[in-house]
User: What shape does this take?
Amino acid sequence: MLDRLTPSGVAVPAFLITWSLVVILPLLVIVLFSFLQVKSYRVVYLPTLGTWESVIDSGRWIVAVRTLRIAITMTLIELLLAFPFALWLAKGCKSKPAKAIIITLLTIPFFLDTSSRIIVWRSILGTNGIVNTVLTSLGIVDEPISWLLYSEFAVHFGMLGSYFPTMVFPIFMIMSLIDDDYLQASSDLGASPGQTLLYVILPMSLPGVVAGVVFTLVPLMAAFVEPQMLGGGFVNLLGNSVNSALQELKYPTAAALSTIVVVLLGVCLAALILITRKRFDMSTMFQAIRR
Amino acid sequence: MIGTSDLPTLALIDERQLADSSRFWRRVSRWKGWPATAKWLGFFAIAMIYVPLVWLAVMSISQSPLSGIPYPLTTANYAALAADSRWIPPLQVSLVMSTLVAIVCMVIATMVGRSITRMRRPGGVLLLTLLPLFVPGLTMGAALFIFLRTMLGLKMGYWSIFVAQLVWALPFALLLVLVIASRFDLRLLEAAEDLGATPWRRFWDIEMPILRPGVFGAGVFGFLLSFNELLRSLFLRGVETTMPIYNWAMAASQQSQVPIIFSLATIILVVTLPVMGVFFWFLFVKLDRS
Assistant: This one.
């Protein structure tokens, strides 16, 4: 019975094959491509380790380490900000309109142009920016603070708002599924709020935390606009290296750097799964989506 | 629920071990200020999103947008924007491109979404379709560029921007359709079949009205995500330019063009923010009721 209701058997497999061609195949190709050479605009199909050697020799691995460090730091900062906020939003905020307004405010940034949002920070944090103008005119500092812009601080600061919603949403969704009765029961049994948080809320919201970390870490690993506009050339990340390698037509180098991004992400995700494996299996993430 | 059996019960917590530090921690955990702290931390992060937007609007009417002082106020930036016409073609390209991406998203997401709900083991198909969510945009863009341009030797253009944006927008569109489609009761279709409805009528008269919010949402998300897509289109654009690419190029390399970008971005914000606000408001209120 069910079979006759399924949509035509051709369309979906055709889509899946096309999808694999434009999603999976390119990702495999870049790994392969990093072992090839380009000579006078032609791909030489002869395996070589030259690209990888030059990537390691030219000190690009420092860039990889920096990218990983900034991505993990930002993910942790966002988690520290988002977890308590999601808990408050799901369980503490009693006003429904307020909840809807906050959710709307958190959704809108997904659809805003990145460049114009980030470039504005220049006029806030720069040496002539509003922060420094106010500080110097109030006499708090004698001369403008130069590390506010074109520094790692500025890059972190600019990322703060951009990557917050992706962390809040999954945690909030999973927390609103936690039945209030569990929390009531925990406190009736004599648990302090801290114990309830540690032994009831945290384990139950772990899938949301993992999803939040994944969706924040993934774009952070190839962050490009923030370091480009607020780093002032001092904060070179893998995303910028990929871009400049492509501009210089060094395709195998770009492929090798992209491979590093994917591999580092894979290692991070694998570590995340290993750490949280005892608590839940990945399939619950998709079950949560289906709700 | 989520691995309920694995949860440590309170009885397992060793009371004696807790006793040493418990007085301190109890006091910490009973502190009345925690909810307010959590609330204001989140509000701080939200302010980090919206302060730049407000500042963008303020600086768009000030004489030197990249300095810190908004005064003197001027409308010169808007006049310059009106006199300049270079931003119009990218805007038109983006509008047409996003509409196309939205339509294709709606069709494919409906098709794949409703078939996933009928599969016994949907995991593989779902994971395959959602894979782009786990790949950074820049990496996907670079990978597509190297594959299509260098490997296959194809000429980049509007079509490759379209492919890149579809790869980004479709997973979200599919998720939206899935949320609605997974609640759909297949017995409705059996009933319709028993009553003699043709397959097309079963789809269009029974299934579609129920799926419509998801399909509509898929279209809106597809449009908005495509309209603001930068990281993938940047590599796959060939010589074409979309609105985000234009903004990025102006902001990144040409300081003199920044005032125009500020006023242009402000106009787009003024138009889109209320529309999006109302749309999401209704979406969430409706989702909340169902």
Summary: The two ends of chain B are 20 Å apart (CA to CA). DSSP finds twelve helices and no strands in chain B. The CA atoms of residues 192 and 201 of chain B lie 9 Å apart.
